[in-house]
Amino acid sequence: MASFFDEINRNRIKSILLMAIFGGFFAAIIYLIIIILGGGPLAFGVGIAVIALYAIFSYEMGSKIVLKLSGAKKADPKQYPSLYNIVEGLAVANQLKVPEIYIVNDPNPNAFATGKNRNNASIAVTTGLLSMMSKEELEGVLAHELSHIYNNDIQFMLIAVVFAGVIGLVAAFFRGFLFFGNDREGNGIFLLIALAIGILAPIFAMILRLAISRRREYMADANGARITRAPMHLSSALKKIQEYGKNPNATPVRNANGINASLYFANPLSAKSIINLFSTHPPIEERIKRLDKMY
């Protein structure tokens, strides 16, 4: 058996370690590229400044874009009084500003949190989640999503997405430089480095980003269980989602994609299991197993 706090601390340490590896890998790739292209410390500083501007733009506009892409609409308090009561109660209990609440018209039972910080956050739930879950199960899912806000996961994952996005752009540049550059007589070492950056770097960046996402999901499960003091309710919600996924007529979340998939409570892209290394979420079976062992 593991306590809520043991599980939270374990996943916090692992996610910070993964982010440190990601940051070091990111800086090394940028520095290596600038050296290969003949730049120096000034060029490295300029490159980091440009990336910082890109990150600021993503930070300011990211949540609005996510809500728009997801088809989320502001929930009417008169139509969803129970939903508002649960979210407000959980927020007040954790000394958080009550996030804005959105509804996504989708039969897939799911939810996500997004925003710039604890004081500027939103929670969205699908109509499928509302129709399928009991009040206690819905409270468990919403406690999980509030935990993402409380743990600053919305900023944490934004940094990971920005890192991965920039590395992807750099890789695309190098592939073009390698195959369409004017200097076709480049030495073998340069070609090897360029090829490695162009092909392997974005794959490694994606694996790191997804690993961070899975760690934060475990952490939100543990913290959500701590908030409600009823891990069995969150476990029960996951079991229902697991059963939904086994239905041959089950469909992925309509507006989910590679950009917003990691934000959801459960993997929104496919009802079938995929290789864990390339999954945005831990296996539901493992999440249930951990919750059932908590006290």
Would you kindly provide a written description of the structure presented here, covering whatever features stand out?
The protein is an alpha+beta fold. The protein has one domain. 65% of the residues lie in helices and 7% in strands. The protein has nine helices and four strands; from the N terminus they run H-H-E-H-E-E-E-H-H-H-H-H-H. The protein has helices at residues 4-36, 41-70, 81-93, 127-132, 135-150, 153-180, 188-228, 231-246, 284-292, and strands spanning 72-74, 100-104, 111-117, 120-126. Strand 3 and strand 4 form a beta hairpin. The radius of gyration is 21 Å and the shape is elongated. The N and C termini lie close together (7 Å).
Keywords:
65% helix, 295 residues, alpha+beta, 4 strands
Give the structure's gist in a few sentences:
Helices cover 65% and strands 7% of the residues. It is α+β, with helices and mostly antiparallel strands. It is elongated.
What's the number of structural domains? 1
Number of helices: 9
Q: Assign the structural class, choosing from mainly alpha, mainly beta, alpha/beta, alpha+beta, or little secondary structure.
A: alpha+beta
Distance between the termini: 7 Å
Binned, the helix content reads: 55-70%
Largest sheet: 4 strands, mixed
Order of helices and strands: HHEHEEEHHHHHH
Residues in β-strands, percent: 5-15%
Please list the strands of the largest sheet in the order they lie side by side.
Answer: 1-2-4-3
Low-confidence stretches: none
- Tally the beta strands: 4
Shape, please? elongated
Overall pLDDT metric:
80
